[in-house]
Amino acid sequence: MVESGFWHPVALVGDVAQAPVAVQLLEQPVVVWRDAAGAVQAFADQCPHRGARLSLGRVTPQGQLECPYHGWQFASGGRCTHVPALPAFVPPPGHCARAFEAREAHGLVWVRMEQGTTALPAFKAEDDARLRKLNCGPYDVAASAPRIIENFLDMSHFGFVHEGWLGSRDATAIDDYRVEATPTGLLANGCKAWQPQSNLHSTAPAQVEYAYEVTAPYAAVLTKVPEAGTTAVDGWRESIALFICPVTPVRSRVWFRLAVADFESPDEKLQAFQHTIFTQDQPVLESQVPQCLPLDLRAELHTAADKASSAYRRFLRQSGITFGVC
């Protein structure tokens, strides 16, 4: 499966602490936990001895993952180190849990199930000290990851789904914009939208300029800059990353990573604005039929306003993506 070679988010960094955490990725149960050095580990959530869920076990004081059934212990990398029923037994190399690569980035734990050449999805704002970063979510959504990415790239729904916030029924025209293919997906520039309240600190309706970038099959970033003088924060700008865990072809777990020019507002206030916007999107996303994203451009109708989503579908097809598409 091509998707197994990409990095996918599975949990917030802060949610993986002393106890093992059960997650699901690409229809497979996975357990994430921390070893004695605090490094995050990811295993298939199945003990190789008798198939029990390792996530029901514990992390020992010595930093080993202990199976709840017979107490087998596994070290970083998956090697079995101890079989309690045979204290003198030295487990051979074949006695091991199936381990995956795991990393921390953007406030999330990421897992790659197979070796691949792909890097973690980029978020350029991460290294910008002038922007504050925080995460929103997770949101469990009954929609495919590609449907959610396509919605993120779409501006022509603003006046209907986000009326009074990101759009108005009186200003729904979409001006032409530029789309170019990139190695990770696409880049769309010159995207403009008239918005009654483009962000938490809006003081007046504004013409807002967007740029969108698809950074992996199930990841994307938008940057937006409203007109000068329309926010309470001078020089307001923001960048928002969308990171999706493809749980099944038609179920997804979603996080947003915010990078904003606001170091004063409490996290909860910034997260509440993003929560309002996404929970307006969610019921519409979950209503779409089919739930998977059609890659045949003849399966649904398109206009010039949809050029970013059409380019995204072409990218998925050319990349051999099969999970969450039809």
Helix content: 10-25%
State the strand order across the main sheet. Answer: 11-17-16-15-14-13-12
Report mean pLDDT, rounded to a whole number: 93
Computed structural class: alpha+beta
Please state the overall shape, judged from the principal axes of the Cα atoms.
elongated
Short description:
This protein has 326 residues and is α+β, with helices and mostly antiparallel strands.
Structure description:
By secondary structure, the chain is an alpha+beta fold. It has helices at residues 145-153, 158-161, 267-287, 307-319; strands at 8-12, 21-25, 28-34, 40-44, 58-59, 65-66, 73-74, 80-82, 99-105, 108-112, 132-141, 178-182, 185-195, 206-216, 219-226, 238-248, 251-260. The model has no long low-confidence stretch (mean pLDDT 93).
Features:
single chain; 326 residues; alpha+beta; 7-stranded antiparallel beta sheet; 6-stranded antiparallel beta sheet; 4 helices; 17 strands; 14% helix; 33% strand; elongated
